[in-house]
UniProtKB/TrEMBL annotation:
A Pfam family matched in the record: Na_K-ATPase
Entry's family note: Belongs to the X(+)/potassium ATPases subunit beta family.
Domain of life: Eukaryota
Gene Ontology molecular function terms on file: ATPase activator activity
GO cellular component, one term: sodium:potassium-exchanging ATPase complex
Protein name per its UniProtKB record: Sodium/potassium-transporting ATPase subunit beta
Swiss-Prot/TrEMBL keywords: Membrane, Signal-anchor, Transmembrane, Transmembrane helix
Entry's localization field: Membrane
Membrane topology: Single-pass type II membrane protein
GO biological process, one term: sodium ion export across plasma membrane
Coiled coil: none
């Protein structure tokens, strides 16, 4: 029995020694592959071989870089710096509102506060003040355009840029100064139409067509104008904000149907066509998007009200999927 154990131990020791020798040989072979002092090769290649392959790849990658540079130059040469080549997804503008809180605070357009408690609405009033700063700075520099019609069929360039019309902040009425009605529970918001290069609104020739579709459920424009005793101007794009929670606007106006309790500034709640079209930041660096201020004076307290704001123009078709024609947010005034 003892002889058997000794024999097994000797065989195990022999196998271990063989493993060490095999590993050592492999390691020496690897080092020899990295640098062979006898053949003067590195990674199996001599100096001439490495020289040829380096020259080949140098010219190869230089060719690819030149081809890429030429391709980019050709493509950029065909692009107009003033506007995108394709705007197929931007046939009509969407709407947006302010205040829209910054992501550092809470990225949302919902307006929820308590009347009379400054700590609940300061974030909104600060946002509106910051938003209006560029408008105030450009009051004295931009053109006071008097023609209310669309500027179309005109050629502009850097030498002859299109006029940028001044938006008069006085037209915003009580919504032009802090605290924008939030202190008394009558909040103001600013509605604007998103910019689309060379797009301009078209007025209605038949006011019966100025209605929202199933996506927006907007009230007819004639009802909006009638509630404020305003005549329709075909050279204006109108804005209306309405309650889609109650179905009859009672939460927003404390009255059924379209009500004068929701105020609009400018007082005709329309955007003159003189601000359109927009020709892009390259030609109109000082362009300021026109605004409509909306003040909600009779909001039902302690209720989440889904408010929807719509722009009326013949070439704006409401589309929920593309977010065209209207904007929806939540308004809640607590007390």
């Amino acid at each position: 029995m003892s002889d058997t154990k000794d024999s097994d131990s000797d065989s195990g020791t022999g196998r271990c020694a063989g493993c060490m020798e095999s590993t050592s040989e492999k390691f020496r072979g690897f080092l020899n592959f990295l640098w062979n002092p006898e053949e003067k090769t590195v990674l199996g290649r001599g100096g001439k071989s490495w020289g040829r392959i380096l020259i080949f790849y140098l010219f190869y990658y230089a060719f690819l870089a030149a081809l890429f540079a030429v391709s980019i130059t050709i493509v950029l040469g065909t692009l107009d710096p003033n506007e995108p080549r394709f705007q197929t997804r931007l046939q009509a503008p969407g709407l947006s509102i302010q205040p829209k809180l910054d992501a550092s605070i809470k990225r949302t357009s919902d307006v929820i506060f308590t009347a009379g408690q400054a700590d609940t609405y300061t974030q909104y009033t600060n946002t509106l003040t910051e938003f209006l700063k560029p408008y105030k700075e450009n009051q004295a520099t931009l053109n006071n355009c008097t023609n209310g019609k669309v500027k179309i069929n005109q050629q502009y360039s850097m030498e002859k840029p299109p006029p940028s019309c001044r938006f008069d902040l006085a037209d915003l009425g009580p919504c032009r100064n802090e605290p924008y009605g939030y202190d008394v529970g009558r909040p103001c918001i600013f509605v604007k139409v998103n910019r689309i290069i060379k797009w301009y609104p078209v007025g209605f020739t038949d006011l019966s067509k100025a209605v929202g579709n199933a996506d927006s459920n907007a009230p007819p424009l004639k009802d909006v104008l009638m509630a404020r005793n305003r005549a329709y101007d075909p050279n204006r794009m109108y804005v209306s904000c309405y309650d889609v929670t109650s179905g009859n606007q009672t939460y927003l106006n404390t009255a059924a149907g379209v009500s004068a309790n929701t105020m609009y500034y400018p007082e005709d709640n329309g955007i003159p066509f003189k601000y359109f079209p927009y020709y892009g930041a390259f030609l109109q660096k000082d362009y300021m998007t026109p605004l409509v201020a909306v003040q909600f004076n009779k909001v039902t307290r302690n209720v989440d009200v889904r408010v929807r704001c719509k722009a009326y123009a013949l070439n704006i078709q409401d589309n929920e999927r593309m977010r065209i024609g209207y904007f929806t947010f939540t308004l809640r005034v607590n007390e």
